[in-house]
Design goal:
The chain is α/β, with parallel strands linked by helices. It has one domain: Rossmann fold (3-Layer(aba) Sandwich). 44% of the residues lie in helices and 15% in strands. The chain has a 7-stranded parallel beta sheet with strand order 3-2-1-4-5-6-7, sandwiched between helices. Helix 1 packs across helix 7, helix 3 packs parallel to helix 4 and helix 4 runs parallel beside helix 5.
Length: 246
Amino acid sequence: MRLKGKLAVVTGAANGMGRAEAVRFGLEGAKVIVTDLDGDAAEATVLSVRESGGQSVSYQFDVSDKDSWLSFVHDVLREHGVPDVLVNNAGLSASVIDKDDIDGWDLLMNVNGRSVYYGTTLFGRHMAGAGRGSIINISSIMGIVGGPSGHPAYHASKGAVRNFSKAMAVRLAPSNVRVNSVHPGWMQVMTSTNIEQIRQGRVSLVPMGRTGTPEEAANLVLFLASDEASYITGAEIPVDGGFLAT
């Protein structure tokens, strides 16, 4: 098992990539702490992890709120110890907020950017004290390139995650804590009423000719979480079917 005996925290793990990451971690021997704003859905992920043979508990909190993070980190350290792995997965998509909504900037930057800052710095200092750890921050292909759809704050927030991860990788490297960013392309987690029309339009832009799955993203996250990636830090790694290569 690639994460046997390790403690992992996955934010935004109620569904999609977060749930796939949590379940995969459990299969690989980790004890998984699942968080989400939706407490019932987070508990459903816990049950999925346990059904697959893993250990898991859930916490419900708002990742954009500093005091909630401080309370969560305190509880995790007291009840479980210092995590070996942190996946800052929680985030809002570009389509959730109308592109002309001025206040949408604050919401997207807070959920997608501020949450990653809180998680990385608050847990990172304890990981550094323990002399080990892997932090994986989920960005997006739109954190590397621009695009005409969705709120532009989404691109800005995911770009911030990309460069922030590099800055923290340099700072934490002497303490044997690795920080990397993952940049998913279009995944099969969309809930729009015109999902097929949108999916086909996006697939036409992907050299591999299809959207990805949450499990394919989770495979990359698992690798970065494991000791197999012990000399990889400060990297930005796409899982996008070749989109960024075009």
